[in-house]
Amino acid sequence: MRNVQALRVVHYKYTEEFAETAGLKQDERGDTGVIAQEVESIIPDAVRPAGNIVLPNGTQIENFLVVNKVLDCSDLCVPSAFLL
Quick one: 65 exposed, middle or buried, by C-beta within 10 A (0-12, 13-18, 19+)? Predict the structure, then answer.
């Protein structure tokens, strides 16, 4: 439970360049979640690398990280371990 309590939940808005590259619609550009770098320091297995990303304007995001999203998968999977 301490792992989860240590996570900081934030509301964020993707930059226009990233949103366009990712194909996000206007109403999908804001979200609530966690920062991958912070999650990685608390629960490393919950984060995976996505490599480097180059935006259309030439900006490169190095070592882009993705947090495994929590989905309602009760009919699709069985948890192998509980971290709480």
Answer: middle
- The b-or-e profile of 21-53 (16+ CB within 10 A means b, else e) is beeeeeeebeeeebebeebbebbeebbeeeeee
How does strand 60-67 pair with strand 10-13? Answer: unpaired
Q: Write out 42-59 in H/E/C secondary structure.
A: HCHHHEEEEEEEECCCCC
Q: What is the pLDDT of residues 17-72, one digit of tens each?
A: 888 888 899 999 988 888 999 999 998 988 999 999 888 888 888 999 999 866 55
d(CA 41, CA 6): 10
Q: What gap in Å lies between CA 64 and CA 36, rounded to an integer?
A: 9
Domain residues of the chain, as ranges?
2-67
